[in-house]
Amino acid sequence: MIADNAQPVLNVTYRFAGSDEKGLDRALRALQAVAPGDRQAWGNRASATDLLTFLEVALGLSFTLAVKPALTKYFEGLLDTESLKALGAEHRLAVENWLGRLRAELTLLATQAHDLIAGGLKRLWGDKEEALAFVAFLGSAECYIVLNDARMSEALVRDLPCAFKQLLGLVARDGLPDDAHVLQLYFDRSATRWKYLFAPTAHGFGNYIDRYIELDSGRVYHIKSNGEFRRLFDPTPDDQLKFLVNPFRDVMRDVVDSVDSS
Fold first, then answer.
1. How is the chain split into domains, by residue range?
2. What SS3 string covers 137-189?
3. CB atoms near residue 115 (< 10 Å)
4. Is the pLDDT reported for residue 1 higher than 50?
5. Judging by DSSP bridges, how do beta strands 37-42 and 128-129 pair with one another?
6. Could you give the CA distance from residue 237 to residue 241 in angstroms, rounded to a whole number?
7. Contact 149, 75 (CB under 8 A)
8. Which pLDDT tens digit goes with each residue over 62-77?
9. How many CA atoms lie within 13 A of 197 on its CB side?
10. At what angle do helices 89-118 and 68-75 cross, to 10 degrees?
């Protein structure tokens, strides 16, 4: 019989600057109340991305060895609804329970984070907000999910578990580009669904987000400039620190060049 492991599906770690722990303590306690996890403070750190976070909620996944093969087939798309029904009752129940727990735990955690942000949880770098993000581990890649974008909505909070399941399926079924190690999940213009996975190339970092993947189809698209990125995804200037590559890098460069030449 497959054990119905009552342990959480999500392995959560809360990461932040050590100097910020006192100021974040109340928020961390509220998050840990719905998703227990260790705290991990960082010191000075360098990053190849423009994304500036003040709090990262790192998400690992746990499952029993007995249910892993069935889950792998599920996410690879080898188990449709009928195939899932054809599994032995114990395997089917284990997969359904795991998926249900994942949905419930993600919903609780995202809702709590959203409520804290609505209640004023933030940190500024200059006059721009830093990001509060989930960080999901996908093999050798890390995927950031920014929760305090200016257009973050309750609909996106509700859609996150579904999108996360889609993301796991995409990685299992199609894999990621070989050079895609730092990713960012993003939403559509209506701010109701998470639909895109930003996956900048080595050239993109330091310039602009030059590649993304559509979650629904798995199709890979390339972008030729920051201007094209802004036309496609309509980022707000106030959120420029919440992207792997600042969508307004070219605008800032032009301003600096203008000042230098004056």
1. 10-253
2. EECCEEEEEECCCCCCCHHHHHHHHHHHHHHHHHHHHHCCCCCCCEEEEEECC
3. 12
4. no
5. unpaired
6. 9
7. no
8. 877 667 777 777 776 6
9. 29
10. 70
